[in-house]
Each structure stands twice: as C-alpha cells, then as structure tokens.
Specification:
Blueprint (H helix, E strand, L loop, with lengths): L1 H9 L9 H12 L3 E6 L2 E7 L4 H14 L3 E4 L5 E9 L2 E9 L4 H36 L4 H17 L1 H18 L6 E3 H18 L4 E7 L7 E3 L3 H13 L6 E10 L2 E8 L6 H9 L4 H18 L6 E4 L5 E8 L9
Helix pairs in contact: 1-2, 4-10, 5-6, 6-7, 7-8, 8-10, 9-10
Length: about 350
Amino acid sequence: MRRIHALGLDLRSGLHGRDAPSAARRLRRLLAVDGVVLADLDGPVVSHGRHIPSSQVDALLAQVFEYGGGVCERMADNTPLYATPLMVADELSGALVAVGETVEADVEAAAALVAEHLDHAALRRARARIAAADLRSLRAQISPHFVHNALAVIAAMVRTDPDRARQLLSDFADYLRYGFSEKGDYATVADELEAVETYLELQRARFHDRLDITVRIAPEILPVAVPFLVVQPIVENAVRHGLERKEGRGHISVSGYGEGPLCVIEIEDDGVGMHPDLARSLLAGTGPETRGVGLANVDQRLRAVYGPEYGLVIETALGEGTKVTVRVPRFTRGVVAQ
C-alpha cells in the first residue's frame, strides 16, 4: 500500500511533472520487470530500466492507440513486451509499456492504477484553475458599496475628528492594499484576520460606534495557510445583510481555534438572520446575486482547494442572526502562504 500511495504522490503533477521518472521507477519495481515506459498520446514521456528501441516503442504505441487495447509482442531476444492503454476519465490518454517476464493482467492493473492517479491529478489542476479564477473574480468585486461608505465616513470626520479620519484613511489604504495584493493564492490566518479587523474598524466608524466587535483567535492557528480572501467576504456579508438592517446596536464575533487536524473559523452576528432555504440557495449560487456573490465564491474556492466536504456551513433563522463556519485542514499539500 505504501508503494501505491507513493506512486500517487509521484503522479500528482501528471506524466510531465518532475516526479514522473520516480513513478516509472516505482512501477518497474511493482511489476518486477526489466523496464517500463509511460507515454502520452504524443509518445514516450518517461522510462526506467531496460532500453527499448524507439522504433519498436513507436510501433507498439501506434497499435495501442489505433485499436484501444493491449498489445503483446517480443523483442529481438524473445523478451516479452506488453503495452496497455491508459484510460483517464474514460478517454485514451497514453499507454504503459512493460518489458520482461510478468503477467499481462498485472500490467493492465498497473495501468488502471496509473490512470486513476492521473485522473486525480487532472482534477486537482482543474480545481486549482477554478480557485484562481474565482479569486480573480472576488478581487474584482471589492464592494463599491463599502468603498463609497468608507470614504464618506472619512470625509465627514476630516473636520470634526481629523486624527481619527487620518487613522481611518490609513486603515482604508491597508484594506485596499491587501484586497488587491498579488502575492499569491493563499495567506495565513493572521493576515486574513488583520484585514478583517481593519475592515471592521472602518465599519464601526460608519455605524457611529454602534457595532460591537469580538475577535478571539487561538495562537496555534495563526500561521495556518488558507485561501486568500476567505474570511473578509463572510464578515462583509454579516455586516451588510445582517447588521445594516437591524435597529440599535449590533455585534459580530470572529473566532478561530484548532480542532484536531482542522482549523475552524466562525463568524457570527446577531443581525436579522435569514430563512435557511435562502442560505442554501446562496451557497448553491442561485440566491439573490447581490447577497450571494461573496458566500458562493468562498464556498466554491474552499471546495476546489480542499474537496467537497470542506465548504461553508451556515446556521441561521429569521430574526436569530447568522453563524458561518469555515473548517479546513491545518496542513494541505500545495497550500502555502507566500
């Protein structure tokens, strides 16, 4: 099982990844053959062990690709030569060639294993592309509503409270700098929370200090890497659609803690809440567009990066406020803050 797991790691970036030669070496040992070749539809990509004349490899691959089935031949010294297709997501994507005494069924089983790992690798790359596209979309959606209100508040304080206006202007610049940062797709929890606190201070000024804020974060999760701009859109949704519509004082809390191998971040407000059916539609991307953009975007990016079991969880009811929970692994291969 360790070899099979290691083979999957070697093929995480596909046949053209830097660890593909290691995959060929591992396959040779797994099959106990003299040599192995992994090919895509353009020809051999990586190999290990005994050399096979290129003319013979090309002829063998041509048969596999033309007929879509396995081929068994012999080399000049009568050594068996097996080739079987790699079917990735039910599409012909390449072939596995093995030279040496072995069982043809074992070669086919190894090819199926390679194809499965290549399918997973393609899915991970697709998820990464989706996450990057969604992040670009979210950066482009920095709320003009918030920008207008923040600048209006700062302008109103320039004469009445110039020191606070100066501080808020600095906070606003920091917020925009972080929101439009091109440093990478991931940030630490500490960086995300710093941006959130800046955003909330600007909103507190806008609410004329009627907004109470509580931030409680366990130190052990501060260095955890998470997708960039995951927390702030949830907080913005809480302020805009939970607290703006509430009379009197409002409270929003952001808390984070470790839960075994998981990092958990909770954003809770005591605003007007919403019907649970509306919450489900927002995550599905079918709710009101102006309310659903941030939450649906974050939910999709979390699922793209970590898998379908790691989307947002929303607990809400009309008049009862809203709680949104982000629960992600503390350590995930490829998720590194820059």
